Amino acid sequence: MAKVQNGFPEHFLWGGATAANQLEGAYDQGGKGLSTADMIAYVPKEKRQGDHAMEISTERISGILAGEVNDRFPKREGVDFYHRYKEDIALFAEMGFKVFRMSINWSRIFPNGDDAEPNEQGLQFYDQVFDELNKYGIEPLVTLSHYETPLGLTQKYNGWASREVIQHYVKYAETVFNRYKNKVKYWLTFNEINVMVFSPYTGGGILSDRLENKLQTVYQALHHQFVASALVTKLGHEIIPGSQIGCMLARMESYPHTCNPADVRKSQQENQMNLFFTDVHARGKYPRYMDRYFAENNIEISREPGDDEILAAHTVDFISFSYYMTLTVSAGPEGEATAGNLLGGIKNPYLQASDWGWQIDPVGLRITLNHLYDRYQKPLFIVENGLGAYDQVEADGSVHDQYRIDYLRQHIAEMKEAIKDGVELLGYTSWGPIDLVSMSTSEMSKRYGFIYVDLDDEGAGTLNRSKKDSFEWYKKVIASNGEIL
């Protein structure tokens, strides 16, 4: 009789996920240069136009650098992990983390992106962080590029729109691989690589006024990232024997609004457009369904000799992804629109929604895991999942976040079912184990953490850390390897 995996594997990697630009702060310390994230201002809700209005022009950058813009830039300050990393890592260790997903801030290593030599102070900082993690037996999972392109590369080359950036990224990766080869085994090349389609500035450091043909520029920039990812995967395997290099996708499973074949076809197309990115990373070539899309949208990818061979020869070892919600789509005008993670959709009547309108779908995570594993037959890693919510601090300083516990419990239960289905799942890092600055809105009130940080949307607060109810709950989940939910 076939053996069924009824629980989480023995060495399952439980932990949490962060990004340097939302966490570290110290944007002008330790020799760090400016990044694209340092240019993103906080916009109060009453002045905000949509959840993800993050396109920035050359003129805007010039105005910020000249001191002509009086906005506040919360990602510059983060939650001061730069100075508090020992305190924070001790808290992660208390929860029992097996893995901590973090990113290296590229401009902390190469301040302008194309410097001749790396910044030793930046390299030393991450040495200290990795050593602290190692002290507690926590495995680092490191993202090389997480929405923080050095501003110098944006100004000089228009970011990833230029092929020139590939060589600078490869040099950066080679530098950190050599430096941390005895400290880091798990690496991701780009965070949510598909986000470039929705926000070229966020995903590729591309300025809005230098987008003559947005789709052409975006997909050319993505080709540059695919090639860079493959080259870096090759390097990682050479420099760090036994290393595991993965890609990372913002997974958006799309359901048809009805069983009308037109709706089913629409959902199929949406899923293909989302999985295009992992198809290239995991299969090593462009899928044929993109030929028609490129032809109908007058997109012509410029390739250099050898590009296709590079993609084919250096596919990723595992596929990681973020999962926050599913989408429901229709071929027609039916349905009520809803908010979501970078992309809207139609309101699903069977699902509840978060404070930010993101539809909560635990079963969708099981569906996603099965679809991805069926498609690629490669190990999977859930590297972002969590609930952004308003937290209320009680008079005694406690935060009773049962809603977060409920959300995570339901999703972890479905992960367990997917493993029983036969999915090979390496680990789970919930997004934002400690409260941090929101990627999309630069606010603090959208909180994900097990650890509360005393900081508000206007930048006021002590930055003191405290445990929410979910802290002790997650500690028990990890200690029981997912048996006690």
Structural summary, described in words:
This protein is α/β, with parallel strands linked by helices and 485 residues long. The chain is globular. It has an eight-stranded parallel beta barrel, surrounded by five helices. Helices cover 38% and strands 13% of the residues. The chain has one domain (13-479): Alpha-Beta Barrel (TIM Barrel), CATH 3.20.20.80. 48% of the residues are buried. It contains 15 helices and 14 strands. Helix 3 runs parallel beside helix 5 and helix 13 packs parallel to helix 14.
Main attributes?
single chain; alpha/beta; two-stranded parallel sheet; 38% helix
Largest sheet: 8 strands, parallel, barrel
CATH architecture: Alpha-Beta Barrel
Following the backbone from N to C, one meets helices and strands in this order, namely EHHHEHHEHHEHHEEHHHEEEEHEHEEEH
* Oligomeric state, counting identical vs distinct chains: single chain
CA(first)-CA(last) distance: 29 Å
Radius of gyration from the alpha-carbon trace, in angstroms: 21 Å
Q: How many DSSP E strands?
A: 14
- Structural class comes to alpha/beta
Q: Which CATH class?
A: Alpha Beta
